[in-house]
Design goal:
The chain has helices spanning about 1-20, 25-40, 80, 200-210, 250-265, 295-305, 310-315, 365-375, 395-405, 430-440; strands spanning about 45, 60-65, 70-75, 85-90, 95-105, 110-115, 130-140, 145-150, 185-190, 220-235, 240, 245-250, 275-280, 320-325, 325, 350, 380-385, 405-410, 415, 420-425. The longest helix is centred in the first third of the chain and has 21 residues, at about 1-20. Helix 8 packs across helix 10. It is an alpha/beta fold and about 450 residues long. A hairpin with a 2-residue loop joins strand 5 and strand 6. The chain has 2 domains: about 1-95 and about 250-440, Aminopeptidase (3-Layer(aba) Sandwich); about 95-235, Aminopeptidase i, Domain 2 (Roll). The strands form 3 sheets. Strands 1-2-3-13-4-14-18-16-17 form a 9-stranded mixed beta sheet, sandwiched between helices.
């Protein structure tokens, strides 16, 4: 009976995860979706420019740049004695972003120039059904500067591959020029009328918004001044594999962690002071006002704790779990992994360790995580990169160095990281959610005292 209950919970969790991924083509949309879920769960929206009145055992959230969010519960006890249980993730994913002056018209085709954001695996972007989404900023009919989220949803663009006949070495040696090879094609222009007049992209966006904005929206835009837009694959997330062992989707890195952290916080009993931070710009170094190396999290914590003295004492008893996907061992490329540290999909969350502090895990935080996993019956794995290879990093070391908080790096094992379509195990996100929820509810985090 218990196994049937867990199976039903797993199915419900994955259904909601896929819906969240589908609704979140950009960091702006991801934060907007998280806000909807937090409000539905009774969390109160705070604004950085207002005075805050924090009440016990209440949920709150605050956003910055519409692309980063901190949500927290105030708990019943004194955070100075209990600490704050923190989970961190990031909202951004590698993608192709539209340039400020993107218009390209050649041979009757209208294309948009794009800039590569983050460490994109470019080959899979060819021959996909692409759409466009993000944030548009302009003036409304009152002359006020306002933002609008935009999502074309339907396939409006494609990056066609060059035929094998014109590139005989494509399967052996293929290099991609980021400037010339990847501008997506949106449409043909002037083919029927012979009119090859230039399309102005901002006017194109304005026409779309005026046509597609709902009546209950604020006053319509009168002009588009600027935008932050990226292309994305319209193929919806899905369960794949003969027994649906896998989740295939864009942006698993790292919206998967954002969602499980959010659900863990919402489902927690709120008796302990707990927090989720989802930062933007991790994929490009985190150096921004809304990135992990910016002041966003620290300022929220300072206001929650009251002053620097209280914050320092609180952080001494606090722990941060940095959740970001890990590299699963690929059966076709086993040699890319250390033979004793190749995580397997659906075999549990992964503790990420690096001697050079690319991950923030130490023996204390690792032991705490293993203890929580054991308490909820979730298996755990470890990842260490090959000694002769480098590895990526996360918001973990950045947050640890900015705050001085004990930090642990974990994640679910994943294939095709930074591809337009990534692959994870269909059980792993749910299992990590269970660990995160238990972490938020834990009575004590078991500080370790070294014997002298």
């Amino acid at each position: 009976m218990k196994e049937q209950s867990i199976s039903a919970e797993l199915q419900d969790f994955n259904k909601e995860l896929l819906e969240f991924l589908q609704a979140s083509p950009t960091p702006f949309h991801a934060v907007a979706e998280m806000v909807i879920r937090l409000k539905a769960a009774g969390f109160i929206h705070l604004f950085e420019g207002d005075r805050w009145q924090i009440q016990p055992k209440q949920g709150y959230f605050v956003t910055r740049n519409d692309s980063s969010i901190v949500a927290f519960t105030s708990g019943e006890g004194d955070p100075i004695k209990q600490g704050i249980r923190m989970v961190g993730a990031h909202t951004d994913s590698p993608c192709l972003k539209v340039k400020p002056k993107p218009e390209l018209q050649k041979k009757g085709y209208f294309q948009l120039g794009v800039e590569v954001y983050g460490g994109v695996l470019l080959n899979p972007w060819f021959d996909r059904d692409l759409s466009l989404a993000g944030r548009v900023t302009g003036l409304d009919n009152n002359g006020q500067l306002v933002h609008r989220l935009i999502d074309f949803q339907k396939p409006i663009a494609v990056i066609p591959s060059l035929a094998i006949h014109l590139d005989r070495e494509a399967n052996d040696i293929r290099t991609i020029n980021k400037q010339t090879d990847i501008p997506p094609i949106l449409m043909q222009v002037g083919m029927q009328t012979g009119n090859d007049s230039k399309i102005e992209f901002r006017e194109f966006l304005l026409d779309y918004l005026k046509t597609n904005e709902h009546q209950d929206n604020p006053p319509e835009l009168q002009s588009v001044l600027d935008y932050e837009l990226c292309f994305y694959d319209t193929q919806p997330p899905s369960l794949v594999g003969y027994n649906e062992e896998f989740i295939a989707s864009a942006r698993l890195d790292n919206l998967l962690s954002c969602y499980l952290g959010l659900k863990g916080l919402i489902d927690s009993d709120r008796s302990k002071s707990s927090l989720l931070v989802c930062n933007d710009h991790e994929e490009v170094g985190s150096v921004s006002a809304s990135g992990a190396q910016g002041p966003f999290l620290k300022t929220v914590l300072e206001r929650f704790c009251g002053d620097t003295e209280n914050l320092s004492r609180t952080l001494h008893h606090s722990t941060m779990i940095s959740a970001d996907n890990a590299h699963g061992v690929h059966p076709n490329f086993i040699g890319k992994h250390d033979e004793n540290h190749g995580p397997i999909l659906n075999q549990g969350p992964v503790i990420k360790i690096n001697a050079n502090q690319r991950y923030a895990t130490n023996s204390e935080t690792s032991a705490l995580f293993r203890k929580i996993c054991d308490s909820v019956g979730v298996p755990v794995q470890a990842f260490v990169t090959r000694t002769d290879m480098g590895c990526g990093s996360t918001i973990g070391p950045i947050t640890a160095s900015e705050l001085g908080v004990k930090t642990l790096d974990v994640g679910v094992p994943t294939f095709a990281m930074h591809s337009i379509r990534e692959l994870a195990g269909s059980e792993d996100a749910y299992n990590l959610y269970r660990v995160v929820e238990a972490f938020y509810n834990a009575e004590g985090q078991g500080r370790v005292t070294l014997e002298q």
